[in-house]
Fold:
Amino acid sequence: MNGAELHKLLEQVARGEVDAASAESRVLEALRARPFEDLGFARVDHHRSIRQGFPEVILALGKTPAQIAGIAAEIVERGSTLLITRATEAVANAVRVRVPQATYYADAAIITFRQQDVAPGKGMIVIAAAGTSDLPVAEEAARTAELMGNAVERVYDVGVAGLHRILGERARLASARVIIVVAGMEGALPSVIAGLVNVPVIAVPTSIGYGASFAGIAALLGMLNSCASGVSVVNIDNGFGAANIASLINHL
Amino acid sequence: MNGAELHKLLEQVARGEVDAASAESRVLEALRARPFEDLGFARVDHHRSIRQGFPEVILALGKTPAQIAGIAAEIVERGSTLLITRATEAVANAVRVRVPQATYYADAAIITFRQQDVAPGKGMIVIAAAGTSDLPVAEEAARTAELMGNAVERVYDVGVAGLHRILGERARLASARVIIVVAGMEGALPSVIAGLVNVPVIAVPTSIGYGASFAGIAALLGMLNSCASGVSVVNIDNGFGAANIASLINHL
Amino acid sequence: MNGAELHKLLEQVARGEVDAASAESRVLEALRARPFEDLGFARVDHHRSIRQGFPEVILALGKTPAQIAGIAAEIVERGSTLLITRATEAVANAVRVRVPQATYYADAAIITFRQQDVAPGKGMIVIAAAGTSDLPVAEEAARTAELMGNAVERVYDVGVAGLHRILGERARLASARVIIVVAGMEGALPSVIAGLVNVPVIAVPTSIGYGASFAGIAALLGMLNSCASGVSVVNIDNGFGAANIASLINHL
Amino acid sequence: MNGAELHKLLEQVARGEVDAASAESRVLEALRARPFEDLGFARVDHHRSIRQGFPEVILALGKTPAQIAGIAAEIVERGSTLLITRATEAVANAVRVRVPQATYYADAAIITFRQQDVAPGKGMIVIAAAGTSDLPVAEEAARTAELMGNAVERVYDVGVAGLHRILGERARLASARVIIVVAGMEGALPSVIAGLVNVPVIAVPTSIGYGASFAGIAALLGMLNSCASGVSVVNIDNGFGAANIASLINHL
Amino acid sequence: MNGAELHKLLEQVARGEVDAASAESRVLEALRARPFEDLGFARVDHHRSIRQGFPEVILALGKTPAQIAGIAAEIVERGSTLLITRATEAVANAVRVRVPQATYYADAAIITFRQQDVAPGKGMIVIAAAGTSDLPVAEEAARTAELMGNAVERVYDVGVAGLHRILGERARLASARVIIVVAGMEGALPSVIAGLVNVPVIAVPTSIGYGASFAGIAALLGMLNSCASGVSVVNIDNGFGAANIASLINHL
Amino acid sequence: MNGAELHKLLEQVARGEVDAASAESRVLEALRARPFEDLGFARVDHHRSIRQGFPEVILALGKTPAQIAGIAAEIVERGSTLLITRATEAVANAVRVRVPQATYYADAAIITFRQQDVAPGKGMIVIAAAGTSDLPVAEEAARTAELMGNAVERVYDVGVAGLHRILGERARLASARVIIVVAGMEGALPSVIAGLVNVPVIAVPTSIGYGASFAGIAALLGMLNSCASGVSVVNIDNGFGAANIASLINHL
Amino acid sequence: MNGAELHKLLEQVARGEVDAASAESRVLEALRARPFEDLGFARVDHHRSIRQGFPEVILALGKTPAQIAGIAAEIVERGSTLLITRATEAVANAVRVRVPQATYYADAAIITFRQQDVAPGKGMIVIAAAGTSDLPVAEEAARTAELMGNAVERVYDVGVAGLHRILGERARLASARVIIVVAGMEGALPSVIAGLVNVPVIAVPTSIGYGASFAGIAALLGMLNSCASGVSVVNIDNGFGAANIASLINHL
Amino acid sequence: MNGAELHKLLEQVARGEVDAASAESRVLEALRARPFEDLGFARVDHHRSIRQGFPEVILALGKTPAQIAGIAAEIVERGSTLLITRATEAVANAVRVRVPQATYYADAAIITFRQQDVAPGKGMIVIAAAGTSDLPVAEEAARTAELMGNAVERVYDVGVAGLHRILGERARLASARVIIVVAGMEGALPSVIAGLVNVPVIAVPTSIGYGASFAGIAALLGMLNSCASGVSVVNIDNGFGAANIASLINHL
Structure:
């Protein structure tokens, strides 16, 4: 039973052409049989924007530049904010043809074009990164968080082997409402930082390293086993996901 | 909007107390706001029995005998058929106190008490097992399949290292509508059997073996990589799951 | 002992040239020594076509275009239906030179040329896919199933994070006799769909994802541990295998 | 230089017995040479209570009942709130001898004795669990969250194979400021729930399952690869850790 | 068609009661229809004894003492040689009740009772073991090899960290026709020994070790990657299997 | 003390220039102090040729064509037989410049130039391969075995899903003194073949497959867990190693 | 509170403008609030050079040639010694433009330019390598150790399958104060060498090998499980790290 | 050729009974044939004590109390120092019967009886441990190091989540000549400590933790991937091995 059918049925009841009892049984039947159906009056994407706090995001990984440019154009036409992650230079070139206003942040491998206002986050999101090789993931997080309306403070190159550098940033760390910590290799930085602050820490293992780093497994396991409280973890290299969670928390 | 409210609303429309347009908007609102809610007229368990073709099953693993006996009594009281898998002797004793009619099949580690008629399966389910150590899993499958209304033929002790035994059972294998193959160690039996027949083969890796069998991983990988077509796989030691799938197929 | 020798021996017995006892011992010897030998009256490939319900399939992975084109030409010459999976553009070009009638489905990476009639499946095979990146595997399954004589319904882009999309497709899912569910990342879609229907679900993990998806292991493990009944699993990215099983079931 | 020495030095400066310049150089020396040393006027544990928002927690795993009882008595004597996780009945008996006021929650394997007031959390923490076997972990999270001053709503037995149960709880899920989702087996529940709400979801994989669940690895990988945004993950069975993070978020 | 039927048929042909042509067609039919069937005149186990060079072996792992004693009694009654591996003291006690002549070698966890003569091997099998903890596996190999008719020389406690011990045994190693090398931990002994001799080396990784030995995986991988030629590997702790292969080679 | 020094010393003793006692103490000193030293009169490679039954083999993997050509020229100049494994076309071209007589077997990725006579093996080495994709590894084994003086029989394309093909080759399998079985995917072929014969079976897992074949791990585990006796295993894709072992056995 | 503020405060106390008690409380507050802050009198890099015994090292892996050249120029300008590891030819070209005096060791993939004197190590560092394919890692260690002021002795091509080669180098091994052992495949060399000497052995697994070497995991596990005492292990291919540790030991 | 034979031969040469050439060839033959033989003048155990710096150590794991007591008695009788690791109370009781002077350190699971003087180490060995659960491994290291003649300083309970505790111990850490760091869970402590000091750090991962700690794998990987220089790693829980290496270094 779609909207038009319901409209017609209720008109008939009002006109006495259908009695209340049989109308009731037909509506109940519809409710029982297809409570979950797409009712035709809601577009999936708008729904998502409402439910998830952010419009569709395009993960460029494994799509062709042409495919990505097509989806991007569609999103922009609809008036939504555009966010493409893991975008190469080739993707950026293809997107710019269709969406000339798009900006490509090469260090974050992100393409964006903001069209909608977002509510500002309530505090600061600090993004800490252990080494310079972790920066692409950290920047993916930083650009995503900014696009979602958050003030972002970058605290980079603070590996645990040089404690004085971390300790020297204690003031900035303490200013955060939520902290994203990006680290590869042994992934110890979230433990150390979570021991210094009293806010949620989102840990992002990176695939940086070689040999027994196993493309991020060592860092991932280190973070999951953190002896510090307040640390939760996202997938390896998932800067976008961490920013999304941090933004959710920062908008509470 | 529950059934009573709908009833009342439609009565009001019929009586002209509410016009069709506002009734429509209220019904639509209900549809939009709570399309997924429990509507109050369906019990979860009955639903499952209808949707899944089989009542609730109790996996005894990690529950105390007392807990299991309690749940079993509740199911039996409701008039449903009882099926408990991975049941130890201690579980059986506890259940018998509450459900004296229950039967314990020690070789299958299964407790059952049939209360509902089931539709008979259309053909034969053959259950093949590679070694005698695989029998508990094979029997879990066999008893489950029988309880679900299927004729079951057991073809046991037909490891691939003794081809003449498998080949000697070709007639029985050929009589099947669907075959469950239970094997540990290298897990090669499903490939060999699927090469001899033209019906779906459900492969069940078992945790039988030692050393590099890694508690069933070797068998699981062997089965997932089967070079024979027609083989799909369930979890290690999951005789119940295999029987469930085979029964679904046998009732088509 | 081949047919001619048996013929000659029995003639000799009949003529009294060989006594029954020594004939018996010679026949017994032959039975003992070579019960498994190729008896000369069955060609391997025809056998397979009869036993397995489908002629030989060429897995292009790890073969050169020239090799594949050669095998394809041989199959077509024999009058069999051609099916090549995991075919690149280069393979397609090489095959077209030898088999000009062949069709290349780039989105499924499949090349086919149907020459034999197949019995139609009894119901609908629904192929559900979680994300757009899973489509190559889903299309491999879809094209294979169609070639095997099945009606196929595609239900794509129904990830578990957007339940309304899955629920909106409940009618189509309910129309299936067997469902193939293709999903990468966490591989949760088969559990959700199997909870909505009462038919066998063949789950195909895909290698889509990054980091801790471990090229499909996360999805594979998720599917093997499905809490829903009725789910069996095939190898990562094995769309062809899933279609083969689904077709077997659909032809029962 | 400890507190007493500093006191004495400043008194001497005030009395003119030590001039400002040499006092300055002595204080600077202390700062340079031992900026990180235990200064003698701060107990480690108090520090932690201040920095981390919660007093010391005893993880009973791998400690003897006697050891645990000793540490518990010390904490209680100090006036701190007691929290022991993974406590067996034997541990509870030993602790009760030393801390008679302690309460043992067997279903959560937790022992507590609250002595300090905690600031109330700002919203509701919903704790969802997939199956009854996941309850010990869920209860560890629930009891911990309550002890930390949070209102907790339990939404149990909502596995993804029975979507209607999850959907029927949408109202309660929507009431949360942060959600903890506890699930074993395929670990798909966080993805489904995160798709329905717009708040942070902390996913806790459990070691529930058998075979290819690999003691929680399947669930862990499923959660790390969640296709829904807003999901971060803690260690397998780490209900306490999840509650700690959720409480941090709920107190922001 | 079993032996009796064949006998009768050929008698009839000889007597002219059945003509050669119809006898031929009946024999051919039997061959075609059931080439692989158990023909009724050969017991499976005798077959195995003939084909595999050794009677049935009972792997005690995962069987009850009562079950094992029953199978043992049956084998002995048949006149076959008895061999039970991985036998505990409890198993030995149960077997002795049924087979009083059986001998239990506790250090090898083996029970045997020889009833059949075996052909003597052509040379010496040397069994080398790295450490004293590897002896149970080494002795399983040694006792098995002896039972199979081989002369066995034990060269124990020759770990690679004490090269002089290995080198001091060069004469005995050089006397071997085939060498079994049993080693846990890093599993380096086969490489070192294979570099000193010119005969086949069967490497048996053991589950001896702790931590990163992963119950034998480290040793298994070490052996599979041996830089010395002539090394092949069997499953972790599989002393029986190694002896079986060595005996096959020694009887060539 | 090298050969020249020993020569001189003994001459001096013979001429009475050095007395027996001091000569003895000098020789003893040499023996004690440097029993393991390179004595200067034995080239390592000759030693190896004597001890290991085969001259040096060049594994091309990870070396440049120029490096390989250089080593090859050196070996050939010395009069030794040349064997290069895993050789690409580029390697072959580089080697031909330096060793024009070398033969490149592209299907085996092997380059050889025989210069030394080898003792003929005593029997036949049968090399069985499951699928056409396994042929490069099978041919590496076959060419190596032939170069080492063995008669080789190739039995290819006998996967376990088509038992009649394996059974049809029983006569050829039975003719072997040792069998090499090459298989990828589930690696079940060695079990099946070892069940049919009574000779040693060397199993070679190949990296053929995709998804859960994990580049040969599935086949490797399958082979290590073989339920058939007589199967030992070498590293994934190690056709050369298998041939080396088989040749050792065949020369006993 | 910085130095100036402290100066002023103490002056005030001395002048009686601030009493001792309030000065004490302000100093204590400063101590409590910022015990870890960067005190402004130490540059990070100088610190590292002092604390770690070696200036900053650039790991080229995952950085662009331009980035590396920039960092290199900065280090050289500061007067520090330059060390770049894992440098390709392209990196070397880029660095030479900015730092013409830099030397590129292609076999070690290392670029260096020494500007600071280093204290000479007290003894010899011997670097042993199993095979020629391990040389890049061995050379990375050798060049690093030399740059750090150590005398280095290279003992290459001493695999465990040819013991006479290792034993022939016993004198050179015995001359070491610390030994670095570089090996791939089964990684057995450190065990053998540690059994011959009485000095610390640093084991470096390499990613050399194929199949079940799993890119160095087999060697890593072998080394971690070494039965010889005195062996500690670094990451796969980490020649630099091993040299760093060896140099620390050699400078004690 | 033994000493007597050599003596006789040289006498014969001196007497002219054997000419130099044939003597040379006989000596050469002896050298070739047995360069590696045990020369009869060195006992294995004495050798080890000399070469390895420490007498035999008994790893109790997997041996019976009776076996261990027997070996212990033998070592003590020989006058050597006794060291048994991983000893349970039962082992201690059995050993005390045979070696009444032995001391059992339950917290270290170590039994010792010193009979030989050891050279004192040159500096201090600091043993740092992250948590109280790591103490058994730390104490195994501490007791071993002390028995080997080293001064040991214990720095326990300094987890990375409480940096102030580590920093407060900087003076003691700085006093070390070599540091052993024992840590489970994420294993980050070695990185942090190695960043603070300039001496070799031996990292010992422990099997402490649960879930994704995987019995020490997480800690092991963390340590292998340490971003700090100077860290090498031993097997999980191998406190003895770490102490052995540290003692070697401390005696240089």
About this structure: The longest strand of chain D covers residues 176-183. The interface with chain C takes residues 130-131, 159-163, 167, 185-188, 191-192, 194-196, 209, 211-214, 217-219, 221-229 of chain D (CB under 8 Å). The radius of gyration of chain D is 23 Å. The first helix of chain D runs from residue 3 to 14.
